[in-house]
Design goal:
Blueprint: H1 6-14, H2 44-54, H3 57-65, H4 95-100, H5 102-113
Amino acid sequence: MADGNEYNMFIEKDKGSPVEIVYPTEGTPFVVGPNAIFKAAPNPNAARLFQSFCFTPEAQQLIIDVGGLRSLHPQVKEHAGRKLVKDIKWLKDDPAGVEKSAEEIKARYTKIFGV
């Protein structure tokens, strides 16, 4: 798997499924889940309050405990037995390079994964 789906593997592993998470020694991509407010949101103040809540320690802990996601918030705790964020070698992003190579990347992904 190379698609940022680590959280589902955590959930499966916690259920006892025979899976193991392996982090490549050359580095692992860090896939973020974007969070935004629509420009024409019908309740922009409520949206801003919800957005603020999403980044509290409580909400960030919830995404770890219930969703199996990662958080970079300094006040949250990872599940016992999981590799800590600080101990994973992360690949550096190059958005401009990715954009220039988008078709080549898609073709290589298709070839490797057969999709």
